[in-house]
Write a structure and sequence with these properties.
The complex is a heterotrimer of chains A (246), B (288) and C (329). With 246 residues, chain A is an alpha/beta fold. Chain A is built from nine helices and ten strands. Chain A has a domain of 64 residues. In chain A, α3 crosses α4 and α6 runs parallel beside α7. Chain B has a two-stranded antiparallel sheet with strand order 1-2. Classes of the chains: A alpha/beta (246), B mainly alpha (288), C mainly alpha (329).
């Protein structure tokens, strides 16, 4: 199947079942270099599972996952990171006994044993996320919004070409959301970071995403611009009762 | 070696293995529910053995009469241990719990050493040397009784979990902790009950074992290891697995004692455990 | 940071001249402290830095001891060469254990049990290993104590003091160096959250293997020291789980994961232990086991109320904070 020549990530016909339950059913999506793409859908739709398949947490049962032309389906998570995909977790996972700077330096060491280089990368990522001033604070002492930013900084320090963000806006106040949105816009525009994000917070999706995929019961039921998708009848039906359009 | 001698040895190992299985069952139950790895398990077994020996030496009481009192006492010890010491540790990292129970084990073993000394103590009842003759087989009376009691205890435990309300409540906690809490089950109490049940098993097993083997304080750590080997082979959290694993170990120990030098039989259990960890780390049986 | 370095240098200077001020007994106590500081440091690499609980570290002490002792006794190989063999043997053993465990993601308790199993297995094995004496023990040639034979490590306790000091210092420096580099960062990441570590690019299997190999290799040297200092080896004694527990007491009480914790823990425990021995003797009670009970209680209390050990609190009060990365490059 001829794909977009600048397609960074190409997911084709991917499926995953858990004990007979199909979490992801023949899902396909693609993300082009430099894009910001959102993946939305009701709870339990399989979004995080799809992320986990791309990020190497588990192998897909069927289908292809291609990143920059290479087939990465079934690769380990650290191999996926090495090839240029960074990710955050829906439930944040900071390295609790390390400082903010040390946390991000772990990401910075990707591909290099040089401490100074790791530190430089970490510094850049922390400044991007406006967290440099709290670099000496232990990660366990951070508030939830700060922990989320820490996750992003850590992923950024790996110098990824594609950033997978899993519900980074959840639990943030509107002002904090706006800050995050502008940060991601800047990262995308200035550093050329391609972003694929899972989001429930529609405010962020509308503001950030150039294209949106909608996942429901593990299947992609719609895709297009945010405007197109949010007026799609099928999408509205899948969200019926959740009142996500605010 | 004549075949009936070999069969005798295997059967003897099987019976001993059932007592091992009971001990391991206690460990498995505790882990399956409370998710605590009781590193003091073997030491508790040794305490049970010494208690039986003590009762025998002081008052001439046959260990079989001590079964119920010890079961009750150990239930209480387990309950208390869980509520007082272990409960505060539930949220803590795994290695903290482990080390805490390690500390308890260390104290227990050395208390035994201080009170009873390092010499081996045993129980010799009037029927210790009796045996039944069934055809060509020579079955030790004591071993048979112990095996029977072990089986009965296991059956009782199975029944508790299947039919009694608090047994079912315990299973609920194991299967779905959040759900159990939502429904209003007193988890702390149930955890303590489980610990008590597991410890009671160990108390009974120890009481039985005192009839079969002489006890020294050093047996405590050895039994802890053995219990873990059995549970790993059988599958952590599987009741059937604990019994099956116990029998497997009991038999292989007997056979190994036959084929190699008796002192090397300890290596067999470890070799088996390593094999299981390599080829089937989840154990031979699936968790209940 | 500067304060801590200064304090360490002062401490080192004191330790260098200490032997000349001590009597024989206190010298042997100091040697014990340094030994436990070193071996606790080695264990700390695995546990404190990487979060892998080993309760069978006596395995490496024993393997290191027997390897170097056998090469010396049977082939007249000087212990400096024997050391290399000892390290290789221990790294191999660590690799086997690590591979078995980490290949299947066996961690936590299972892993600890596996380490115990290997130590026990080896203990029983060595009891039947007649080439190195079996249960009867393995004895090294002893020459006159007054002759200082550094090549063969025979001689005055003072020589062993400086050897132990060298080991402790080397262990400390190695740990400090580890912490600074990628190894240390990756170890700690694995300890704190394996999944997040993977997502950040850490090959968890490989780095866990490094942790056990480094720890095992370091402990091998402790074994070599043990063999040549005590001159006799018994499997029942050297591989026993009590040895493994002894090894972990100092770092746990002193402070897991810190650099100075194992050192402080070793000092506190050894001095307390000798104090208890002296007290018990004076009281006329020579009951075996009392000391172990106190160890157990200390361990229990420590893990309950001070899970991070006694060093972090003291360090904070003295103003020695851990080297944070905000100041240096």
């Amino acid at each position: 199947m001829p794909e977009h020549s600048s397609s960074l990530l190409e997911v084709a016909g991917v499926s995953k079942s858990f004990r007979g339950l199909r979490a992801v059913n023949s899902a396909s999506l693609s993300v082009a270099q430099g894009e910001i793409v959102a993946l939305i859908g009701p709870n339990g739709a399989g979004k995080t599972t799809l992320f986990n398949l791309v990020a190497g947490v588990m192998p897909p049962d069927e289908g292809h996952i291609r990143f920059m032309g290479a087939d990465i389906a079934g690769w380990r998570a650290d191999q996926v990171c090495a090839v240029g995909i960074g990710r955050t977790f829906q439930v944040v996972k900071p390295f609790a006994d390390m400082t903010v700077l040390e946390n991000v330096m772990v990401g910075g060491f990707r591909g290099t044993p040089d401490r100074r280089r790791a530190r430089a990368r970490a510094e850049r990522a922390l400044r991007d996320l406006d967290m440099w001033q709290m670099r000496a604070r232990p990660a366990s002492a951070l508030t939830l919004p700060d922990r989320k930013r820490l996750e992003v900084a850590r992923a950024l320090a790996c110098e990824p070409k594609l950033l997978l963000l899993d519900e980074v806006m959840a639990g943030l106040r509107p002002t904090e959301t706006d800050t995050m949105v502008s940060t991601f816009r800047r990262l995308n525009a200035e550093h050329g970071v391609t972003i694929l994000l899972i989001e429930h917070v529609m405010r962020a999706v509308m503001a950030l995403a150039q294209r949106v995929y909608v996942l429901h019961h593990g299947e992609i039921i719609s895709s297009g611009t945010p405007k197109e998708v949010t007026s799609d009848q099928r999408v509205l039906e899948s969200y019926l009762g959740t009142g996500a359009l605010d | 070696m004549p075949i009936d001698a070999v069969v005798n040895i295997v059967i003897s190992g099987l019976f001993t293995g059932l007592v091992y299985g009971l001990m391991a069952l206690g460990l498995s139950v505790i882990y399956g529910v409370v998710r605590i790895v009781n590193f003091a398990h073997g030491e508790l077994m040794a305490v049970g053995m010494y208690a039986a020996v003590f009762a025998f030496v002081m008052a001439g009481i046959d260990p079989l009469w001590m079964l119920v009192p010890l079961a009750v006492a150990f239930f209480g010890i387990g309950y208390g241990l869980q509520r007082a010491l272990v409960n505060p540790f539930i949220g803590r990292p795994e290695h903290s719990q482990f080390i805490l129970l390690l500390a308890v084990a260390l104290v227990l073993v050395n208390l035994l050493l201080v009170f009873f000394g390092p010499d081996a103590r045993g129980v010799l009842v009037s029927y210790s040397l009796d045996s039944y003759q069934i055809g060509p087989l020579l079955i030790d009376k004591v071993r048979l009784i112990c095996a029977a009691v072990a089986l009965i205890t296991c059956a009782i435990l199975f029944a508790i979990f299947r039919y009694l309300s608090f047994g079912k409540a315990i299973r609920a906690c194991a299967d779905n902790l959040l759900g159990a809490q939502v429904v209003g089950l007193n988890v702390k109490h149930l955890y303590a009950l489980t610990f008590g049940l597991g410890t009671a098993c160990v108390g009974i097993a120890g009481c039985l074992m005192s009839l079969l083997v002489d006890v020294t304080p050093g047996l405590g750590p050895a039994y802890t290891l053995l219990a873990f080997v059995i549970v790993i082979i059988g599958g952590l959290g599987s009741m059937v697995g604990a019994l099956a694993g116990g029998v497997l170990i009991g038999v292989s120990e007997s056979v190994a004692g036959l084929l190699f030098t008796p002192s090397a039989k300890g290596m067999v259990s470890f070799a088996l455990m390593i094999l299981v960890l390599v080829f089937r780390p989840q154990g031979l049986f699936k968790a209940r | 940071m500067q304060r801590s370095i200064l304090a360490l240098v002062v401490l080192l200077a004191v330790l260098l001249v200490l032997p000349f001020a001590l009597d024989r007994y206190m010298l042997s106590v100091m040697i014990l402290i340094l030994y436990f500081a070193f071996v606790g440091q080695a264990w700390n690499v695995m546990m404190g830095f990487c979060g892998q609980l080993s309760l069978g570290h006596a395995l490496y002490v024993g393997l290191g001891a027997y390897t170097s002792a056998a090469l010396y006794q049977h082939f007249e190989l000087i212990p400096w060469v024997g050391m290399i063999a000892a390290v290789l043997v221990c790294v191999a053993a660590a690799s086997i254990i690590g591979w078995l465990a980490f290949r299947f993601g066996i961690g936590g308790t299972y892993f600890a049990l596996l380490t115990i199993a290997f130590a026990e297995f080896t203990r029983i094995g060595f009891e039947h290993f007649d080439w190195v004496g079996g249960t009867a023990g393995f004895f090294l040639r002893v020459t006159q104590q007054s002759r200082m034979d550094v090549l063969n490590l025979r001689g005055d306790p003072i020589m062993f003091y400086y050897l132990a000091l060298a080991l402790a210092v080397a262990g400390f420096l190695l740990s400090a160096w580890l912490l600074r580099g990628r190894l240390g960062f990756y170890f700690r990441a694995i300890r704190d959250n394996e999944e997040a570590a993977r997502a950040a690019g850490v090959n968890v299997f490989r780095y866990k293997m490094y942790a056990v190999q480094i720890s095992g290799g370091m402990t091998a040297l402790a074994g070599v020291f043990f063999a040549f200092y005590y001159n006799n080896l018994f499997p029942e004694q050297i591989f026993h789980i009590s040895r493994s527990i002894e090894i972990i007491l100092a770092p746990i009480i002193g402070g897991i994961g810190t650099l100075f914790g194992p050192v402080l823990g070793a000092a506190v425990l050894t001095l307390a232990s000798e104090g208890i021995n002296a007290a018990l003797e004076a009281l006329g009670h020579e009951i075996p086991g009392v000391k172990q009970i106190l160890y157990g209680v200390a361990l229990g209390l420590s893990i309950m109320f001070m899970p991070h050990g006694i060093w972090p609190g003291i360090a904070r009060r003295l103003g020695f904070t851990r080297a944070r990365d905000d100041s240096d490059a």
